[in-house]
Amino acid sequence: MNLRHFAFASAFKAISVTHAHRWARGLAQGLGAILMLHSVRPRQGDGFAPNQALEITPEWLDEALALVRSEGYDLVDMDEMAARIAGPRRDRFAVALTFDDGFRDNRDHALPVLRRHRAPWTMHVTTGFADGHAALWWVELEEAIRALPRVTLTVAGRIIDHETRDAETRQAAFDEVYWSLRGRPEAELRNAIAALGATAGLDSARLTRALCLDWDELRALAAEPGLTIGAHTKTHVMLARHPVHVAQPEIVEARDRIAFELGVPVHHMAYPVGDATSAGPREFAIARDAGFRTAVTTRPGHVFAGHASHLHALPRVSLNGYHQNADALKALLSGLPMMGLNWGRRLQVT
What we know:
The chain is of the alpha/beta class.
């Protein structure tokens, strides 16, 4: 755990042991929280887990849902969440569960837990992942570094050269490559990672097919009681970095494709990556004009009454793989950490 995660863990613990997660609810807690999840699977054992923030175990999901119930909160779907934001029913704090990308482990490991708790949930599907061809580039980077004895590439004229002999050096290589590329044009990021994957002998499409549900599997899953299918674009691009003639079809055509393939209406969506550099006012307007009821970002925060005018710029609370414990979840559901991160502002919609 790095210093940033250690600082968060310490803050979560302090909030919990002082019971601030209860006595300070009136200060920071909103109407509800939309939890953000990605992969749910048993813990991996080799010590190298650079995407750990995006992975939780089924056991922690089970504990988290039990905690939500024990705190007296309502588990609701995204239709009900939108209704509570816009309407008068605000007597109990609401929690909605959203899973991004369409990972097969959501069906295999999360679904039994969700059934046991009778918890409604939304899966945001990336159509290119269901097709089996769009790149899970962050996973591909992880697997390339795991496979290669050394990582060498040039980013913006700077040579990155790392040995990858153990978990620690692999993590250092991942961090440097990821953050060097993260601010570059998305095509450059994807091409560089694809080249590393090719050097490592990875088949990008095969990796996607191994990890993500295909259309036949999604059709079977779509009949699951309590599941809402949402959209997550065609190819998981960082929308705000692309011209409108790219961003708009990514949003609209994904919705239409899912509706056609699965025979279900698609009223909710999630922006890939979802931070302020990846989704902003232009994307919020596209989602609104496309007729989505809600669209969620990755900006941290609770939902408040003011979000009734910003249902296409909703914040979420990450159920983060680095903090799989009750102290963290109690703190996050209190709203206190998000108020700190957002400098006291309730709405992050610009």
